[in-house]
Amino acid sequence: MNQTSTKHPKALYVLFFAEMWERFSFYGMKALLMVYMVTQMKYPDEQANLILGSYLALVYSLPMLGGLLADKFLGYRKAVIWGGIVMAIGHFVLAIPNDISFFFGLGFIIVGNGFFKPNISSMVGKLYKEGDPKRDAGFTLFYLGINIGAAMGGLICGIIGQKISWHLGFGLAGVFMILGLFVFIKWQDILGEIGLPTNMEVIQKKVLGFLSYEHLIYLGSFLLVPCFVLMIIFNGIMLSIMISLSFFALAFLLYTAYTLKGSEGYKLLAATVMIVFSVLFWTFYEQGGGSLNLFALRNVDMVLFGYEMPSTAVNNFINPAFIVIFGLLFTLLWKFLNDRKLEPSTPLKFGLGLLQLALGFYVFYLGAMHATTDGLVSLTYFTLGYLFLSTGELCLSPIGLSMVTKLSPLHIVGLVMGIWFLASGLGQYFAGVVGTWMAIPDTNGTEALPKVQSLMIYAGVFKKIAWITLISGITMTAISPIVKKWMGDIR
Fold first, then answer.
1. Cα distance from N-terminal residue to C-terminal residue, the chain
2. Residue 464 has pLDDT above 90, yes or no
């Protein structure tokens, strides 16, 4: 494949469509979780936020282990296929109308995502030679696939789940997970040698009778599921777990950067700084799946042209739809600026992402201040706030994926990609904690407090988030020249 041409490799589109359908299933299911727990399982807001935060923290932490196992044993392709199978199992278990199956379904999805997510992203990085200016654009296109799937999943599963049957919505997500897996398996030959195990003899070596390392990895995956179920249910232990994992990950990055020779150490140090700031971004951005889901349910006017739209579908469609609309524009923008040597550096893009996140939450606050007398916020304000969250995401998330593959030493790309997702996981957990700041007292469904009172609770926290992210964005922008210098010849 010609990687110096102006066209992207054909293999990018295989990964694009596989990830698109996988994200349909993941975000379709995620769209339903918070409102389902509050309205159907009758959990108070605070408890539902902590369950969701703990689940998502584990979802984004497991890629560190999945990346390591792919680097050392399975290779990226086997990891992606196995992860897809386990995730599909999880979606179908969620479709069983039972509280225990709800938690076990989440457990399977945690494990499957750990194998799938980091390794399909790592393969995108392998499609481009070092220094190829198309790499960021390629990751933005890949991110476009993620969000086409997320938009369709949030919309379709949201409508079916909230209007027809919650469990039918969960089951539909499983069907599309299988579709994504089919796409990857059917056309994986286009990838050439990318993603194959580096040493088949190692993974096929018998270590316990007839069991090989590969078999042990698959068996261990199933044994982890009940462990994660307990961690979600008894989520009080999650803070200690996430802080401990993050401490060891940070220590590993800093120690590795110290031991590497020459520019490689500084590059990994630059990646570490941006990974740390990403935690702040995800802590507030991920209110979308939690507190903003409930805000939309309770305090956003969902009537459009006389039809009351399901809040889960609207809330979980707007953001990925904006990513789809603006994703290609950002790809063209980065290329336009790069051709003129004006493209912002990666750390500056991170700063811009945080600043736009601040603007988005300030718009939510303004919407609350201009709400109707009965406590309903205009859908226009709600949509505009999400617009700035989405453009902020485009400045940070796909760029972060590309950054990891550019700045990581070749022999630990999968592991560092896993740490990138671990940082997302820590942000997801703290997102659940921040969500408890907006917990509406005595929740018993959709009418916990009068809408005017719940609106004031949401508005106060939106304003605080705007200030915190503004300060974070200014700080990242201020130090971006130093971080850029550490990156050397990498943009």
1. 24
2. yes
CA 446, 450, 456: angle at the middle one, nearest 5?
105
At 303, phi and psi to the nearest 5?
-85, 125
pLDDT digits 0-9 by tens, 328-367: 788 788 888 888 888 898 899 999 999 999 999 999 999 9
Annotated domain spans of the chain: 10-486
The verdict on pTM exceeding 0.85 is: no
Q: What percent of the chain has pLDDT over 90?
A: 34
Query: What contacts 285, CB < 8 A, 6 or more positions away?
Result: 357, 389, 392, 393, 427, 431
**Rg from Cα positions in the chain:** 22
Residues 6+ away with beta carbon under 8 Å from 205:
212, 213
Q: Is 10-486 in CATH node 1.20.1250.20? A: yes
Tokens of 319: 């953001």
Q: Mind listing the pLDDT tens digit for each residue in 175-203?
A: 888 988 888 888 888 888 888 887 777 67
12-47 tens-digit pLDDT: 888 888 888 888 888 888 888 888 898 888 889 889
Q: How far is CA 175 from the centre of its chain?
A: 21
Q: Is the pLDDT score of 232 beyond 70?
A: yes
Instruction: With cut-offs at 50, 70 and 90, classify the pLDDT of residue 304.
Output: confident
> Which residues share a beta bridge with 304?
307
Q: Are 426 and 279 in contact (CB under 8 A)?
A: yes
